C-alpha cells in the first residue's frame, strides 16, 4: 500500500496542483483513464471546500491530501484543519451564500464518486473518496 501525502497552504491557486498530482498518482495506481476527469473534478471540489473553510475561519494550517494505492481501490482523503467550522450542515439563516457553496460542492462530489464518505477526524472535516483499480 503506497501513500502520497500533500499538504498545502489554504490558497485557491494550490487546488490545481492537488488535482494534477491526484490524477497522475491515480493513473499510476491503475484507475481507468475514463474516470480521471471525474476524479480531478472531485478532488478539486473537495480541496476548494477545505480552502474555503480555512479562509472563512481565518485559519492557518494546511489542507491535507492523502493518496493511497490499495490492492483493489485507490483512495483519496482530503482533510481540513477547520475544526468545528467543517460541520456538514450549513446554518439556514446564512445570508453569505458560503454554506450553499459547501452544500453544492458536496453534492457535486457525491454525484461524481460512488464510494464517498464525508466525516471528521481529529483536525476537522475529512472527505474520503475511492475508485476501483484495474488489475495489473
Share in helix: 25-40%
Distance between the termini: 14 Å
Q: Within the largest sheet, what's the order of strands? A: 1-2-3-5-4
- The CATH architecture is 2-Layer Sandwich
- The dominant shape is globular
Can you walk through the features of this model?
Residues 8-131 form the Histidine kinase/HSP90-like ATPase domain. With 136 residues, the protein is of the alpha+beta class. It has a single domain (2-132), classed as Heat Shock Protein 90 (2-Layer Sandwich). The chain is built from three helices and five strands; from the N terminus they run E-H-H-E-E-H-E-E. The protein has helices spanning 15-29, 36-57, 98-112, and strands spanning 2-8, 63-69, 73-79, 115-120, 125-132. The protein has a five-stranded antiparallel β-sheet with strand order 1-2-3-5-4, covered by helices on one side. Mean pLDDT is 87; it is low at 88-97.
Amino acid at each position: 500500500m503506497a501513500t502520497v501525502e500533500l499538504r498545502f497552504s489554504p490558497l485557491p491557486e494550490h487546488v490545481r496542483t492537488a488535482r494534477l498530482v491526484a490524477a497522475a498518482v491515480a493513473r499510476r495506481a491503475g484507475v481507468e483513464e475514463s474516470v480521471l476527469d471525474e476524479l480531478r473534478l472531485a478532488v478539486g471540489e473537495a480541496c476548494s471546500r477545505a480552502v474555503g473553510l480555512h479562509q472563512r475561519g481565518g485559519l492557518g494550517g494546511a489542507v491535507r491530501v492523502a493518496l493511497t494505492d490499495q490492492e483493489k481501490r485507490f483512495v483519496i482523503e482530503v482533510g481540513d484543519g477547520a475544526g468545528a467550522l467543517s460541520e456538514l450542515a450549513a446554518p439556514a439563516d446564512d445570508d453569505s451564500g458560503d454554506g450553499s457553496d459547501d452544500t453544492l460542492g458536496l453534492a457535486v462530489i457525491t454525484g461524481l464518486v460512488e464510494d464517498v464518505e464525508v466525516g471528521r477526524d481529529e483536525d476537522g472535516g475529512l472527505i474520503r473518496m475511492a475508485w476501483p483499480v484495474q488489475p495489473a
